[in-house]
Amino acid sequence: MSYKTRFLVMDAEKLKFEDNSFNLLTYLGNPLPHFSIDIFDNSVKEAARVLKKDGEIFIQDIDWISILFSSYRRTLVEHNPAGDVMISYHLELDTEKGFIKRLFHIPKLGKYFEDEFYLWSPWLVEFILKRNGFNNIENVNLGDDHWITKGRK
After folding, report:
1. How far apart are the C-alpha atoms of 107 and 36, rounded to whole Å?
2. Residues 26-45: pLDDT tens digits?
3. Which domains are assigned to the chain?
4. 112-131 confidence digits (pLDDT tens)
5. Taking every pair of C-alpha atoms in the chain, what is the biggest distance, in angstroms?
6. What is the pTM of this model?
7. Cα distances (Å, whole numbers) of residue 65 to 83, 114, 117
8. Is 116 exposed, middle or buried (0-12, 13-18, 19+ CB in 10 A)?
């Protein structure tokens, strides 16, 4: 397969494209934990603006709410992309703003950092799509807690 593709970095809330420019828009790599609900809502509004009639949107996400309720662990031990052991500790659950905060520690490097993860679930993604004029919405489970939500403009 051969596709003419360009990757651009820009503000998802202020896309630099004309109205009705694309047939398909994707959010891949589970980006939603890095968006507040307001930012995601605004970015979907922009997606609707730049999609052509009958254009489609695909959103890959993880059902964080399901994960939290099924087996939330205050301490996790995992590996970072470089393969180093990374320990994360629960710091905060902010139900007003919809995120959890964790402290990460990479012992080998002596590094610490905090990160916020917004809590998303397929029904929330579907709500935002409906609110922004998408229909024929379908949630597809990719296995475990991984989902693709598809909608048509």
Report:
1. 30
2. 998 889 989 988 899 999 99
3. 22-62+120-152 (3.40.50.150), 66-118 (no CATH)
4. 999 999 988 899 999 999 99
5. 52
6. 0.63
7. 27, 20, 11
8. middle
